[in-house]
Amino acid sequence: MNAAVGIQAEQVFARFLTLEQQARDAGDTEQLAYSLVNDGQALFGFRHAALLLNGKARAVTGISVVDPHAPFVAFVEQALAQLQKTARDNRPQVVDPARLNEQSRADWQQLSAPHAFWLPLLDSQQRSFGGLWLAREQPWTPAEQTLLQQLGHCYAHAWLALQPRARHRRRRRPWLLVAAAAVLAAMVIPVRQSVLAPAEVIPLNGQVVAAPLDGVITEFLVQPNQPVAAGDLLFTFDDTSLQARVDVAERTLAVARAEYRANAQRAFADAESGSRLELLAARAEQKQVELEYARDLLARSQVRAQRDGIAVFADPERWLGKPISTGEHLMVIADPAQARLRVDLAVGDAIDLPARAEVVLFPDSDPLNRHPAVLAHSAYEAQLTDAGQLAYRLDARFAGQPPRLGVRGTAKLYGERVPLGLYLLRRPLAALRQAVGL
């Protein structure tokens, strides 16, 4: 009799070791889940087993794919939720029906065996991440409960060994929450909003020299950035046609005056000649006006500076020999000590700028030096720049000595204080709003 009992104990122990070995030999979690709900059936004689992870059924005895809407699956998940509400520890235990509500007890009688055992799976911190629901017709003996408890340690260890990353994430989740909270707190820190835009140093209160007539420029007598004085000759137009026009006007005036004098002498004897004197006098005055206009155009062919300063323009070769229209901008006579900053702020970068907002210029030729300025004027309507970009024109006054005229660089404009989150996400939020149409 004792020999038979010993043989039976050895067989149980061998099966127990086989279950542990099968769990450790599983290559992935799918294979391990199948082993947990099926391989122990021969040793413990349960009708069915269900593996639950984080409150959801992962595997069920005899089923390859778990249907989340199956009655048995729904019952097991609800029963586990009720057990976790009332349980004070994570120890393996026989399930007491009194801990379930009336509906769950009714579902238990219809869908599961009368005696159930809950075997939790614990991590290294003794926290439950899942467990096995084992149900059969016979009550669970103390010896079987001990074996199941030992087997639960093996199952948990095998499962965690196949999911090291998941365990790592669970361990660091509090730190991630702290980091996320710190980032969210930093997003509300007020910072000064700023934006960058291309800029150029241009003359302040300069005299614009425009073409006084239609024609062709024959000679530039000044070079870019050359100092000039009031009255200095800047450039000349081709005056061939203008001089001929003056000559024709002079001869026409001489003919009109001669005709007037001849009729004036005949007026004493010829009444008809006297009647034409007023007409001839008016015609002579007309020719006099035409002569003065022709001389004025001839004088305009030589353009002179109206003030002291430097001649600000790009290249004289740009204008030589080309037809020029009246009013066309040719150059600016400016005081090099008086300059302003012109900023082209792109429409997509536009922010709310207060009156007299701070502006800083970083020249392209000397990016390490900064030139502070104050916003003086901002356009309300955007216009196309030379680069074909739609931008707002802004003007700023330098706080100190201005840079050289014509210097280009990048201007940084400072606005009001805004939360850091808005400062960083302003452009992405604007793009998202345009994309979704809100």
Spell out the blueprint of helices and strands.
Elements: H1 2-25, H2 29-38, H3 41-44, E1 48-53, E2 56-60, H4 71-86, E3 93-94, H5 102-111, E4 115-122, E5 128-136, H6 142-161, H7 164-187, E6 190-203, E7 207-210, E8 215-220, E9 227-228, E10 233-237, H8 240-266, H9 271-275, H10 277-300, E11 302-304, E12 309-312, E13 323-324, E14 329-334, E15 339-346, E16 358-363, E17 371-378, E18 383-384, E19 390-398, E20 408-419, H11 420-436
Antiparallel strand pairs: 1-2, 1-5, 3-4, 4-5, 6-15, 6-20, 7-14, 8-10, 8-13, 9-12, 10-11, 12-14, 15-19, 16-17, 16-20, 17-19, 18-19
Helix pairs in contact: 1-6, 4-5, 8-10
Structure description:
Residues 28-153 form the GAF domain. Keywords: Coiled coil, Membrane, Transmembrane, Transmembrane helix. The structure is a single chain. The protein is of the alpha+beta class. Helices cover 41% and strands 28% of the residues. The protein contains 11 helices and 20 strands. A 6-stranded antiparallel barrel has the order 6-15-19-17-16-20. A 5-stranded antiparallel β-sheet has the order 2-1-5-4-3, sandwiched between helices. Strand 4 and strand 5 (128-136) form a beta hairpin. Helix 4 crosses helix 5 (102-111). The relative contact order is 0.10.
List keywords for this structure.
disordered N terminus, 438 residues, OB fold (Dihydrolipoamide Acetyltransferase, E2P), Elongation Factor Tu (Ef-tu), domain 3, alpha+beta, Beta-Lactamase, 11 helices, six-stranded antiparallel barrel
Q: CATH architecture of the largest domain, please?
A: 2-Layer Sandwich
Radius of gyration from CA coordinates: 49 Å
Morphology: rod-shaped
Q: Look up the CATH topology of the largest domain.
A: Beta-Lactamase
Question: Biggest sheet, in brief?
Answer: 6 strands, antiparallel, barrel
Q: Give, in spatial order, the strands making up the sheet with the most strands.
A: 6-15-19-17-16-20
Q: Oligomeric form of this entry? A: single chain
Helix content: 40-55%
Strand residues, percent: 25-35%
InterPro entries: GAF, UPF0194_transport
Organism: Zobellella iuensis
Pfam families: GAF
Protein name: HlyD family efflux transporter periplasmic adaptor subunit
